[in-house]
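hey so u asked for the seq, here:
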Amino acid sequence: MVIAFTYLCFTVLAPWQLGKHNRTSRENRQIEYSLNTDPVPLKTLLPQQDSSAPNAQWRRVTATGHYLPDVQVLARLRVIEGKPAFEVLAPFVVDDGPTVLVDRGYVRPEEGSHVPPIPRPPQNTVTVTARLRDSEPVAPGKEPLAQDGVQQVYSINTGQVAALTKVPLAGSYLQLTEDQPGGLGVIGVPHLDAGPFLSYGIQWISFGIVAPLGLGYFAYSEIRARRREKEQRQAAAGAATAAPDAPPAPTTVEAKLADRYGRRR
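ran it, structure tokens below
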């Protein structure tokens, strides 16, 4: 059991937490860089339709083009500022560039998790400023659905949305900043917090080291205790073997008679 626990500490639990720490630290560096860097044209990072830019996540970009206003997908079961929300997704055709998925922002569900009325995006050519985001992994076991007449997904995965809408999309998507054409409720940037993952990873490594050491200590203590007991039993047996046979002690009556007749003789 201890061996299995130690194995899990070093091969599963510690790498899991340290991996989360590395991803969080990387994202924090990208966010900090984006906050202190001017926007760049989208086509410098996504030059063609099948482009993605995982190393430029959160980078601010500008793009000129037009929405496809009749194509709309909602990301359901999102939590923004501690409250449930839908994130509204729409394709955006960049002039002389790729078609990208744009996260217009969020709306709050109506009573019973129903979709509220959502304003359509502008149909004319507009220029938007947004943050570049990585496509999310598909939620396992969660298939897209249609509810309240709107297609809905559980994660913002550009491949899944492209298959659902039949619109080719680039690998990364855009998240609008404040005061943008077609924008809704603004989704803020995460706080720059590394979280407890590094300390958790170190703790699992410590547990993996301490567990076998503790087992070894208790095993050694048990062996020493049994050895002492064996030595004590052997010493007691040796003492009993070495002592001469002695007659049984006389009873009180026998002692009195012996004393009386002995004195007469």
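Strands lie at 40-41, 60-67, 73-80, 83-94, 99-107, 126-133, 145-147, 150-153, 173-176. Residues 255 and 261 are 10 Å apart (CA to CA).
lmk if thats what u needed
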